[in-house]
Design goal:
three-stranded antiparallel sheet
Length: 336
Amino acid sequence: MRTGELGHLNYPLLFAHQAFISLMATCSATPISSSYFTPISTTDLIIHRKTHNPCPIEANSKKNCENFRPLGLKPSSIAASSRNIRDQISGSSETLNSSSIAPKSREIWYTSMHEQWSRRNLFKGLALLWILAKRPVDCEAREVQVGSYLPPLDSDSSFVVFKATTKDTPALRAGNVEPYQFILPPSWKQTRIANILSGNYCQPKCAEPWVEVKFEDEKQGKVQVVAAPLIRLTNKLNASIEEIGSPEKVIASLGPFVTGNSYDPDELIESNMKNIDGQTYYTYKLETPYALTGSHNLAKATAKGNTVVLFVASANDKQWPTSQKTLEAMLDSFRI
């Protein structure tokens, strides 16, 4: 049932419902229908003069109007809610003689009473939103160490293997990104990604880059996989990373997604090109003192299909001395 179908019989419930959906959208990787975010406006509602029964304009018959029920309410509950609205309106007009009010004035008066009722319930909805905002979202509580569910690396038990599947990201489900894998220490945790950053709403034809997955450890740093439409770098379909350009040209375009803000060519310390199983990768080492991701960044880029995939490992000055070799091993293990 759409949010709009709740009508305005219970504005606090409507407001709290949308607030809850918005909060969950910040951490859920599961697509949420855009119809949940389509509130019904007061201009889309009418009050029948005889029954004072709120009903969407498009439900221009009694039969259609019955279909617009508040979520989870029985017809008897709807009738009770309608009586409450009628009592609020009628109670304020007991001393008025409706026959003495001109039709135009009566319509303006009903509209005014409806707006006052809506404002009162809007403030109640705001109070419920505050309560929801104060409660922690469960998505953070579900973060656990990857060693508890990922298989260990056969050649080195100090790492586990992450192999991305269609269950992990919207782009993989849409077939917009080829499956990829890399290793990471078992103590790391996967971080939830907001829908607005995950590309959840634009697959399979996203025009902007998005974050695929992200893992981090407070003592060692963080890694993330960023994907970008190939058309952002070249007009050639299914181009390889070499056909896009040199390592310096590619990082000039993708640099801001490594640092989280801006890229200066002087920050590039080292770049290399590797061919692994017929797939070409560009690798980078950057010293980025002003980056949001961290002052030390390692990156690996490749292109396959219609997407450029970028693996980024980041650490701050405190983490880098002890985690550099670990991050370099993670970078080296990335495959698509």
